[in-house]
Specification:
This protein is an alpha+beta fold. The protein contains 13 helices and 25 strands. β5 (351-358) and β6 form a beta hairpin.
Length: 575
């Protein structure tokens, strides 16, 4: 199954949401939700390019009707405002006009239908009539403005826009003046989410790929070079994006990676064959993660789990099937439109050792070796992640990973794989490292050898005497982790919050071998082992009451025997 097959299955999964007026209705709320309609139109237009006969005609019909509905919404400023955010507790909703996201999908769908020989004169007139500063609410340097700006460049290229290249450059320049850190290849937003860094850089790459020739071309080229390096490093070994702040667990980040790395492969094709090949592999790695979240006989999931519609596990307030499902598929459609028709990356494909250390203003470290990736977030957003090892992954085409912090449904607080401690061997309140507000003392330090790579750090909470230290090393035999509180000799525990149920029909079993000092997690034919150095005093297993972006979770608490300053353990793939 290649990218086109995956797009076809995902797009058809939303056919039951397609209305006679051309709109896509959300399957839970039974009305339009933000911008699913234009991306459903784009998916059908791209599929029409790849199909023949009656199947092709059906995709054209759907693309025409959806484009008509989407374009009318852009042109008619008094059109009804769609749902934008939903309260998970009660299902109450709020409405915000997000026409900004319509523009590139609308322009692309129009040009495809035109090139397919369809009647598009009315679309052309409506596209020509749009005043982007009246129709779209966001302004540079907002990431939303990057979306309509990429669509406006396509309109300028098609000679349908009243805006000049000079005016376009004025909009574009604001991004580089205020938000883009060119040397780091990073677009800044509050909380420094990896998602919207990638999202905005994708649209900058989209503008460059579409033949932009204005005075910011040098900056766009530089961003393509530095941003590619960052995107390569923040992609985990399962193809997903390293968890940090909002939207990371939404599947559109996977579709964007497919499209972004496809652009990068084209960009480097004549400049650097090695980088071009790395980009192609990264696009396939993202596709391997993308395809995992297609529900069997159901809607393509807007989040990185396959739990049933309505569960809302892993959803942001602004997420829905009828919105972000077609959006994710739309980004994959853009990749296909630019030549990406590969199959997902096979399991077992290794990566060369690499370490990315980011200090001010990001404060994260990510290491890769073979099938393993480890991501440490030292400056998490309190609403999304805990301090420490937020991600550990074990290669493509697997479900059992430790991706994003796990939330307690009782307290709303976060847990990561990592250390906790208390003053008594049995009773007493645990101090959990992931929930403390640490600051790095001397930053991350890179750790490298002939057969391993990783990083180390020391951190302190404000006003506290004792520090926290950690070292992570990845080699062929797995991930070795050391955690300690130097000078603080008390009772330590290892917390293992784990993915129990991603909604695929397979759940995780636990095999505890106390005397052998190991814990194994078994998910279908996947098996991950935690091997500890210290003796185990007791193990407590709490299989319910937790969740993260990947699904319903459980917690294994391993209390270690005796007083100690630190713990050490190894995490490895058994099968």
């Amino acid at each position: 199954m290649n990218a086109v097959d995956i797009l076809k299955i995902g797009t058809h999964s939303y056919d039951s949401c397609f209305q006679e007026n051309g709109e896509i209705y959300d399957p839970v709320f039974k009305e339009p939700f933000q911008y699913g309609t234009p991306y459903y139109a784009l998916c059908n237009a791209v599929l029409a390019l790849k199909m023949e006969g009656a199947e092709r005609d059906d995709h054209i019909r759907r693309a025409v009707k959806a484009l008509d509905a989407a374009l009318n919404h852009v042109v008619r400023l008094d059109s009804p405002i769609p749902m934008a955010t939903v309260d998970r507790d009660t299902g109450c909703s709020w409405r915000v006009n997000h026409r900004d996201f319509f523009w590139p999908a609308v322009i692309r769908t129009y040009t495809i239908l035109r090139d397919l020989g369809q009647k598009t004169e009315s679309f052309k007139r409506n596209i020509r009539s749009v005043d982007v500063e009246k129709s779209f609410r966001s302004r540079p340097p907002s990431n939303w403005a990057a979306v309509w700006l990429s669509g406006e460049w396509l309109r300028i290229r098609e000679e349908l826009s009243p805006n000049s290249l000079n005016r376009f450059d004025e909009w574009l320049e604001v991004f580089f003046q205020e938000r883009i850190m060119l040397e780091k290849g990073f677009y800044q937003e509050p909380g420094h989410p990896n998602s919207y860094d990638l999202f905005t850089r994708f649209f900058m790459a989209d503008i460059l790929n579409a033949g932009y020739n204005g005075r910011l071309k040098k900056e766009l080229i530089k961003l393509m070079e530095t941003g590619f390096e960052r995107s390569l490093r923040v992609q985990l070994s399962d193809g997903s994006l390293a968890s940090a702040h909002r939207s990371t667990g939404l599947t559109w980040t996977l579709g964007v990676q497919c499209a972004y790395f496809t652009y990068a492969a084209k960009f480097f094709e004549s400049k650097d064959k090695v980088k071009s090949q790395l980009a192609k592999v990264a696009a396939r790695r993202a596709l391997s993660s993308f395809v995992r979240w297609q529900r069997k006989n159901g809607y393509y999931s807007p989040v990185e789990n396959c739990l049933p519609v309505g569960y809302r596990v892993g959803f942001e307030r602004y997420t829905s099937e009828g919105n972000h499902g077609p959006l994710a598929l739309g980004f994959l459609a853009v990749a296909i439109l630019n030549g990406f028709e590969d199959e997902p990356l096979a399991s077992g494909t290794s990566r060369k050792p690499s370490v990315l250390i980011e200090h001010d203003p990001i404060y994260r470290a990510i290491a890769h070796y073979g099938p393993y990736s480890v991501h440490f977030n030292a400056f998490p957003s309190p609403d999304y992640d805990g301090f420490g090892i937020v991600d550990m992954t074990f290669g493509p085409n697997r479900f059992l990973h430790f991706v994003s912090s796990v939330k307690s449904l009782t307290t709303g607080k976060f847990l990561n794989v990592g250390m906790a401690y208390k003053d008594e061997q049995v009773d007493g309140e645990l101090t959990i490292i992931a929930r403390k507000d640490f600051r790095l003392i001397n930053g991350f330090q890179k750790v490298e050898g002939e057969d391993y790579c990783g990083f180390s750090l020391e951190a302190r909470c404000r006003g506290e005497w004792y520090t926290y230290a950690a070292a992570v090393r990845i080699g062929e035999n797995g991930i070795e982790i050391e955690e300690s509180t130097p000078g603080l000799n008390n009772f330590k525990s290892l917390l293992i919050p784990y993915l129990r149920d991603p909604g695929t029909g397979t759940t995780t079993d636990i095999d505890i071998k106390k005397n052998e000092k190991r814990i194994r997690l078994i998910h279908g034919n996947e098996e991950i082992e935690f091997a500890l150095t210290q003796k185990i005093h007791r193990v407590i297993h709490l299989p319910y009451g937790y969740e993260n972006r990947r699904g319903l979770c459980g917690l294994i608490r391993v209390d270690l025997e005796g007083r100690m300053q630190g713990i050490s353990y190894r995490v490895r793939i058994v099968r």
